[in-house]
Design a protein that fits this description.
Elements: H1 2-8, H2 11-15, H3 22-25, H4 58-68, E1 75-78, H5 81-92, E2 99-104, H6 109-116, E3 120-125, H7 134-140, E4 145-151, H8 163-169, E5 176-180, E6 202-207, E7 220-223, H9 226-235, H10 243-252, H11 256-278, E8 283-286, E9 293-298, H12 301-310, E10 316-317, E11 327-331, H13 335-347
Parallel strand pairs: 2-3, 2-4, 4-5, 5-6
Antiparallel strand pairs: 1-7, 6-7, 8-9, 9-11, 10-11
Helix pairs in contact: 5-6, 11-13
The structure holds pyridoxal-5'-phosphate.
Residues 80-82, 107, 151, 155, 180, 182, 207, 209-210, 215, 220 line the site of pyridoxal-5'-phosphate.
């Protein structure tokens, strides 16, 4: 299996000699040692931030490993999940040669990152209920298909994708299967982390941006086999997670009870919002959601979107997206915010 992953990596990346930082070449065994660091051209005067951050984020990975039940060696941290998406494409997809498979509709960054890197995108439609269509996926890929991006719960539809279908695709797909679980904390399923050691081509993305309430610090997590993590570490910018992000993340990861409380409240609010929305004449359909948002089909999405802006309420207009005609995506807010939204909708 090791050789299988290594054969997927772009040849230039496989051959690359990575940058070796000062902290890579000398990493103190213990902070207590009275060491004099004159190796990284840092300013010696203390400002809390005069030193470079830990390039391997060891304390943070240890904490995440305890919370998620994944070894530190199977964790890569990025400047948001977006950095992990970009690095995966750059490491595995040869521009102008390889391709990635992206079911539609989904999160836009996969296509954008592929486009930036001149990697062909093969779009495959989800079913009208936003479920994966295994047959058309299998027909879309070839030997140059290096990544299949699956988002579960899916953005913008909100549903978990069929787990059994994904499990049977995993051993068949010739490249990496990346499952983006940005919203997994809101879902009734545990997701794919328990299956990490069963499939060396399984890559899972999670983030602190949603349930953990830390979108501002930019911390994305990637869980995968040792081989995949080694490749990402090889090509990442040496100090990609800054000191402030590392320390804020460490503090907040102690507050798991708080996060769980938020998730419970948001789910309860989502269900309340759903019940109220179905009663409105302007609402035609609400799609099932395992996330912190609802995709809602309206009678006139563009008009409602524009009118809500006049009330100072901003939704996400998805009505131009495939399979989302007349749909707006509504993030679940606080009780007060949701009430204000409903009042504004009733006034229309
Ligand atoms: C919000 C979101 C993310 C989060 O990205 P970050 O860069 O970690 O903030 C990732 N994937 C999906 C599908 C999202 O909706």
């Amino acid at each position: 299996m090791v050789s299988k992953i290594n054969s997927l990596v772009r040849k230039n990346i496989d051959k690359l000699k990575p940058y070796s930082s000062a902290r890579d070449e000398f990493n103190a065994p213990s902070k207590k040692d009275a060491l004099i660091y004159l190796d990284a051209n840092e300013n010696p005067f203390e400002s809390n931030y005069n030193r470079y951050p830990d390039p391997h984020q060891q304390l943070l990975k240890k904490r995440i490993s305890e919370i998620r039940g994944i070894t530190s060696e199977q964790i890569f941290l990025g400047n948001g999940s977006d950095e992990a998406i970009d690095l995966l494409i750059r490491a595995f997809c040869e521009p102008g040669v390889d391709n990635v498979i992206i079911p539609q509709p989904t999160y836009g960054m996969y296509s954008v990152c592929a486009g930036i890197n001149d990697v062909e995108v093969r779009l495959v439609s989800l079913t009208s209920e936003f479920e994966i269509d295994s047959k058309s996926l299998e027909q879309s890929w070839n030997d140059h298909s290096k990544i299949l991006f699956l988002c579960s719960p899916n953005n913008p539809s909100g549903n978990l994708l069929n787990k059994e279908a994904i499990k049977s695709l995993l051993p068949k797909f010739p490249g990496l299967v990346v499952i983006d679980e940005a919203y997994i904390d809101f879902a009734k399923d545990k997701g794919f982390t328990p299956l990490l050691n069963e499939f060396s081509n399984l890559v899972i993305l999670q983030t602190l941006s949603k349930a953990w309430g830390l979108a501002g610090i930019r911390l994305g997590m990637c869980f995968a086999s040792l081989e995949v993590i080694a490749v990402l570490n090889k090509i990442k910018p040496p100090y990609n997670i800054n000191s402030m992000t590392q320390s804020v993340a460490l503090q907040h990861l102690k507050k798991q009870a708080q996060k769980n409380e938020w998730v419970k409240t948001i789910i309860a609010e989502r269900e309340k919002l759903k019940k109220e929305l179905v009663r409105l004449a302007i609402v035609e359909k609400i799609f099932p959601s395992d996330a912190n948002f609802l995709l809602v089909k309206m009678n006139d999405a563009k008009k409602i979107y524009a009118q809500l802006i006049c009330d100072g309420i901003i939704l996400r207009d998805r009505s131009n997206v495939a399979l989302c005609e007349q749909c707006l995506r509504i993030t679940v807010g606080t009780t007060t915010e949701n009430k204000q939204l409903l009042e504004a909708l009733k006034r229309l």
